[in-house]
Queue: 2 jobs
Job 1
Amino acid sequence: MPSCSRSGLVSVKVGDNAAAAPLVLSLLGKDTVILSMQNGVDTAAQLSELTGCEVLPSALYIAVDRVEPGHVVHRGGHHIMLGSGKGSRLAAAALNRAAPLKAEISQDIPSVLWEKLTVNCVYNALSAITLMPYAAFGETDGAGAVIQMVLEECRVVAQACGVTLPADMTQRLHQIIQHMPTQKSSAAQDVMKGRATEIEFINGYIVRKAGEYGIAVPVNFTLLVIIRMIEKRLAQEKLV
Amino acid sequence: MPSCSRSGLVSVKVGDNAAAAPLVLSLLGKDTVILSMQNGVDTAAQLSELTGCEVLPSALYIAVDRVEPGHVVHRGGHHIMLGSGKGSRLAAAALNRAAPLKAEISQDIPSVLWEKLTVNCVYNALSAITLMPYAAFGETDGAGAVIQMVLEECRVVAQACGVTLPADMTQRLHQIIQHMPTQKSSAAQDVMKGRATEIEFINGYIVRKAGEYGIAVPVNFTLLVIIRMIEKRLAQEKLV
């Protein structure tokens, strides 16, 4: 974002927030609206704590792939949900001017963020581990039952955090397979490129919150640990 | 095994038993002892049903790697436990003449086979999914807890099947990490070479038995489904 701009979009990987915070602060004008365009349900709060400023949360329904530095390919989707708050109308209007984006303000952004977190807990992790596109989830014996187990664990943790996931969440998850059969998750792309994933803020967040509330989440925990091991292998391969 | 030999060792992958049975039958002499040197707790029974002959079960504690057809590298171990039954003394004596093997007859082969199955449920699956050697299990945050979950699920299913796993099974599992830190499981080697694994007879067996007894085994089930998806990818890559 240019110096003293009226709105700033933060879209670094969640794990880079602490490193990015000084840069964000150096670019703030008097009334700059900071928008977190990141995965996770507490990312905006985290960024707010790091910068001391109000940060608007958002959920993006846009599939892109960074094929090389400076070259991003748009795979589909153009929808953005913003939290309501100071500057959200200004930010939504600015985003809507940037066609073909479609930004809307949600009066219940926690539910929106939890629903997206649950989608990520299912597809990011399993796609990153198996390196298979979403179609494979519809074609593999037992995959539907694993998806359901991840979902039910997320549902219980969300409820403990005060958010009720939609009753038709199973259908919503299966629609993703139908709408994007050839897509691999951003986490799968991270693994294929030897980069660290955001797993600690996806399934890792569920595991931490479950721990706080004494809830068992064996499947999310297993997926988290498997990706930690895969990241360890990627880091070792990079050193060779 | 040569025609009309006194003992025959069957060591094909469990999934190939049906295909191997006619060959086994064609090689049998009047008193040939058939020994199943395979993973799984019901493999000998399965082979017995396919051939109509008595088959001795056994558990091998020998790490080998088939680097190419006809070239097998011995990585460690020389211990074989045989079930007791008709011909087991003969078979043990024959194996012990083939130094440096050390064959013993167990009076409780079901417990021996279940303990080995449990080891395989933990390490075969996780090593095949992550392609990491056993040392990584000791070094990754949370891996010990995942190992424990797989173990506890196996323990409950074993108990339902009438077998009590050793009380110090956790220690036995951790000793494997210390004794073979650089080893990758046979299933990991299968995945790296694009071959199908024996997962349906390892974690898959636990899942089927758990289903019969109405026991929840979410972690074994998740590992099974993940490897099914990885095998699907390997099969697709072979076609390309």
Job 2
Amino acid sequence: MKFASLKHPTNRDGVLHLVDRKLQSAVDVSDIAPTLQFALEHWAALERKLLDEYESLECGTDRPVIDFAKALDDGLVAAPLPRTYQWLDGSAYLSHVERVRRARGDKVPESFYHDPLMYQGGGDAMMGPRDDLECLSEDWGIDLEGEVGVITGDVKMGASPAEAAAAVRLVVLINDVSYRKLIPGELAKGFGFVNSKGLNALSPVAVTPDELGSAWCDQKGAGKLDYRLICHVREKWFGNPNAADDMTFSLFDLVSHAARTRPLKAGALIGSGTVSNHDVATGYACIMEKRLVEQVELGAAKEDFLRFGDSVEIDMFDHQGETIFGAIKNRVTKAGAN
Amino acid sequence: MKFASLKHPTNRDGVLHLVDRKLQSAVDVSDIAPTLQFALEHWAALERKLLDEYESLECGTDRPVIDFAKALDDGLVAAPLPRTYQWLDGSAYLSHVERVRRARGDKVPESFYHDPLMYQGGGDAMMGPRDDLECLSEDWGIDLEGEVGVITGDVKMGASPAEAAAAVRLVVLINDVSYRKLIPGELAKGFGFVNSKGLNALSPVAVTPDELGSAWCDQKGAGKLDYRLICHVREKWFGNPNAADDMTFSLFDLVSHAARTRPLKAGALIGSGTVSNHDVATGYACIMEKRLVEQVELGAAKEDFLRFGDSVEIDMFDHQGETIFGAIKNRVTKAGAN
């Protein structure tokens, strides 16, 4: 199934829709589950009903069908999960971490290869896939981070990766917005990120793992998504790293890590961290990483962080060239300028 | 007004109730606002109606009245906000930080006196005031942290402390559960707390600032609560620090800091950090701090962290000796033992 939430003037969770495989049409299923959060909390009872509607949408439905592609272009589509009680972001691609460390003449601690890095983020407002990224200042060092994430049902405290896998309900793409110039000062304080992370954007749809076929849980390992993440910055190609390659911790490992000392409740969003491959020819899913490589190889960083008016795009295609999640496209704007 | 949420078998947000000033009786107001989250999102439209019901509860109401004190003893009361999309915890009492640093022969950086420490926590499940604190292991170094917190309406990005003040809707007590022995390893990784913080418990009721009279925003400064936080550990007195004394950053400062680069959405919970006074005679609101003082003064820490079966209690009384928020009482149990 593919789920989207359409924006609503007063309901901050949006209105739940099912979207066809090619992201062209959608039906309102809010009579079955008003919101995606509700569906996640009552998954066992509602999954069959939702699946019936999804199959009808592909084969012919009695429900009024809306033009999803147009709704998306018109900015009417919210994040599939417009807010979450739990947003935790791992850092599963150590080539990303290695480049950060190398640029400051450091090595990656050995423990990083078996104990995942993860930070707790704020989930009270996820940007829609086409929403503007509003900032007060360009001096923050505005950057994208292209990621894959999973949305879970309830996960018990101490869940193993296999138990975590059974609780994964949906897969989604994430633009984890970072303010690079605020990070060093904030991390030096020792308590993680608060001001140095912005609101995230999610892809237009969140999909059930069965939509991903053999690209999910294939020979590269369970809980890894074997497709390339296509990133554009300022309307130019920026990278297409494979999301399963060079991934030290799977998404199941990350969910298990997150649940080590506390249960996770339905609707938790767990991110992979910035997708990154060792092979620099695959480019980058964040500007900082390109700057670090430039710094080491050219003596100075050249690629600028995002400025007002700049745009980023994050997408992923199946082997037939069809978009799986739809594209995230965010343009940076000055907050309060509209 | 004083708000509580009663537990419900399927609704994770509980059922909204108004509670009388002395916490003896309560009325279901879920026909006005089904949940506290809903009330916070529609505050301007609902505040007057809720206030009318609150005044009726004090003077004589047509609604069925329940015995709130009994419901609390029977474990039927959830956290007033049973889950939140945004839980951010400051560290406003620098005597707490100074003791941590002194024990390792360090000084507090000068910047800590004007740039607040704050971490992002997980808010997907707040423990009820009398719920058990379930852990898998005593080896985690289980500790309480007694705090004051505020619950806000929408706060715009870049809000000043005065603008933050206008968005504060409710005040609450918090037990911010910490796993001390997991903290050093996790903070060394640099991304803040994930495994080393447990679920938090909230006090039985959350109160509107007008309930606090001159103790809120009095001569000690706006956004500080001039009452003592009474803490018991293992049923013995542990501390009664004054929550307004030695508070470097007010709760309004902390909300403003949290909103520096992103808006906060209605229902955000912002904590003060562990209440702590320079005068050691006031005792402590967490075990670690007592251990650090023992380490410096006696050569070794004596007070043990919490063990299975141990209990903690956090409360606050007005000048008439009446509890304001009701007591948080949590007992540590082994998860899965029941």
